[in-house]
Specification:
Elements: E1 2-6, H1 12-21, E2 26-30, H2 35-40, E3 45-48, E4 74-77, H3 79-87, E5 91-104, E6 106-107, E7 122-133, E8 139-143, E9 151-154, E10 159-162, H4 174-185, H5 194-209, E11 214-217, H6 222-235, E12 239-245, H7 253-264, E13 269-273, H8 275-281, H9 288-310, E14 315-317, H10 322-328, E15 361-363, H11 371-381, H12 385-388, H13 408-428, E16 436-441, E17 447-451, E18 454-467, E19 475-476, H14 481-494, E20 498-503
Parallel strand pairs: 1-2, 1-3, 3-4, 4-10, 11-12, 11-14, 12-13, 14-15, 18-20
Antiparallel strand pairs: 5-7, 6-8, 8-9, 9-10, 16-18, 17-18, 18-19
Helix pairs in contact: 5-6, 5-11, 6-11, 13-14
This protein binds xanthosine-5'-monophosphate (XMP).
């Protein structure tokens, strides 16, 4: 295991992912974790992350100096390296010239940390401060045009520092460097594999749950589906999957999901059709936040009623992932100021959340995993690509893609347009290149058209195609004109009530991905 001590870098999670890609487990912990606490994890190595501060600033976050005496190899990255230098008696100051972006690395010592990293390798830099004087026992491993100490080492104590960010994709040779640290310097074994995770989780689930019953709210997304597979493996029929259809799913999806689970996966699902309740509730509702809130509250009500009917249950399974754990726990809160120190801000969009006064104990077997790791677990457990690679779909579903009032007729119109869009995107082979592809129905707007010899006066639909890494930022996707043309043509011809198709070419920011 490698412990990553976080000083508020936007890249700490990325470092953890890079380590795990080498099949070694890693966890992020806040900078104020004591050396004693860190040692309890029995890490083979410690990485000190970057961070937005200067090490000499008055309130700069420092680590427990006790970590220097743990006898564990340490790699400092950017701020982490500067902190190492400062705490061990060297000098860090504002550089004459900071370095931002790509820089070419000249290697002075190609041994251990830099084995298999090419001389001249391009590394990603982002720093305004520099190491002016190294602590005793350190030597320079590499430099760049503007940074004399770009990589340093004290091999005797197994302390290493790099001014660049080996974790970002633009750093060529970054992966080799990380492997050198993990395997050669820390002597880790590649034990973090999907298979070992599954085995261990099954053991843990069995020991946590015993003979009791577990309830799982299935949504059809990759997280809840993977969770269902894992739990079913562990406890079989003591798992009850409940799928609540709020009536705003895409055409054919509820039926498809239930059929897949029942007939192909042999995992029973309680299908709750609550669409009438939700549709009635939406009568006259226009304001987006009100829509979302009402749907959220109703979902909880249905969930509670149905769990009482099907229960009693002792446990509730939740698809909490590692980024949720890092972001929502107190791990990134500065105890001195009470402020979060991570720069990244992520909003959570849960399906209105589940009741705070849960009568259940939570089972959260995915809480150690990143999303890409969940996909791997799902795949190994036998989930088909149509679920593992499914594009994200918001909890309130099509309700937030119908701008203005939701009526059964408008819902049907959007469903039909959306189905055509999906069929054509699938046919084109572009589905997996896009983060999301969907249609949005506009309110009241109508425009004049002509079909056959008749004048039409009907509604427009908006096509939205976006690419994104994580949904936090997004770009509108440059989908081929021919494909847009085919979709538009089919929608206008096949969906009564729609006579015009337009396209949303807004990125996020300033737009959001969804319209509501
Ligand atoms: P926005 O519209 O905020 O969306 O740019 C970012 C990503 O989150 C999805 N999204 C949701 N997912 N429940 C969800 O589970 C929600 O209420 C929700 N709202 C938005 C959206 O589809 C996009 O991928």
């Amino acid at each position: 295991m490698i412990a990553i001590v976080d000083f508020g870098s936007q890249y700490s999670e990325l470092i953890a992912r890079r380590i795990r890609e080498t099949q070694v487990y890693s966890e992020v912990m806040p900078y104020y974790t004591s050396a004693e606490e860190i040692a309890k994890f029995r890490p083979r190595g410690i990485i000190l992350s970057g961070g937005p501060n200067s090490v000499y600033a008055p309130n700069a976050p420092h680590c427990d100096p006790g970590i220097w005496d743990l006898g564990i190899p340490i790699l400092g990255v950017c701020y982490g390296m500067q902190l190492m230098v400062q705490q061990l008696g060297g000098r860090v100051e504002q550089a004459d010239r900071g370095e931002y972006g790509k820089a070419s690395l000249t290697i002075d010592d190609p041994t251990d940390l830099l084995t298999n990293v090419d001389d001249g390798a391009v590394m990603w830099m982002s720093h305004g401060d520099s190491v002016l004087e190294m602590p005793a026992g350190f030597t320079v491993l590499a430099h760049t045009a503007n940074t004399p100490c770009a990589a340093i080492a004290n091999p005797e104590r197994n302390f290493y520092g790099v001014q660049f960010h080996p974790e970002v994709v633009h750093s060529i040779g970054g992966k080799a460097l990380i492997r050198n640290f993990v395997y050669h310097i820390c002597e880790c074994e590649p034990t973090w594999t999907t298979e070992s995770f599954i085995e261990e989780s099954i053991r843990e689930i069995r020991s946590q749950v015993g003979e009791k019953r577990v309830l799982l709210a299935l949504s059809g997304g990759v997280d809840s589906s993977t969770l269902a597979f894992l739990l079913h493996r562990a406890i079989g029929d003591r798992l009850t999957c409940m799928f609540i259809d709020q009536g705003f799913m895409r055409k054919g999806e509820p039926e498809r999901l239930v059929k897949l689970f029942k007939e192909q996966f042999h995992i029973p699902v309680e299908y709750i059709n609550a669409s009438d309740r939700f549709l009635n509730l939406m009568e006259g509702i226009i304001e987006p936040e009100r829509k979302r809130k009402l749907i959220g509250y109703e979902f909880i009500k249905v969930f509670e009623e149905e769990s009482r009917r099907l229960g009693p249950f002792d446990y509730l399974a939740q698809g909490t992932l590692y980024p949720d754990v890092i972001e929502s726990a107190d791990t990134n809160i500065d105890p001195a100021t009470g402020k979060r120190i991570a720069v990244k801000i992520k909003s959570h969009h849960n399906v209105g959340g589940l009741p705070p006064d849960l009568r259940f104990v939570l089972v959260e077997p995915l809480r150690k995993l990143f999303k890409d790791e969940v996909r791997k677990v799902g795949t190994v457990l036998g989930l088909p690509a149509e679920i593992v690679k499914r594009q994200p779909f918001p909890g309130p579903g099509l309700a937030i893609r119908i701008i203005g009032e939701i009526t059964p007729e408008r819902l049907e119109m959007l469903r039909d347009a959306d189905l055509i869009l999906r069929q054509e995107i699938n046919r084109s082979g572009m589905y997996n290149e896009l983060w999301q592809a969907f249609a949005v129905l506009l309110p009241t707007v109508r425009s004049v058209g002509v079909m056959g010899d008749a004048r039409t006066y009907a509604h427009p639909v908006v096509l939205r195609f976006v690419t994104s890494e994580d949904g936090m930022t997004a770009d509108w996707a440059k989908v081929p004109y021919e494909l847009i043309g085919t979709i538009a043509n089919r929608i206008v011809n096949e969906v009564p009530g729609i006579n015009r198709v337009v396209m949303d070419v807004t990125s996020k920011p300033p737009g959001t991905i969804e319209w509501e």
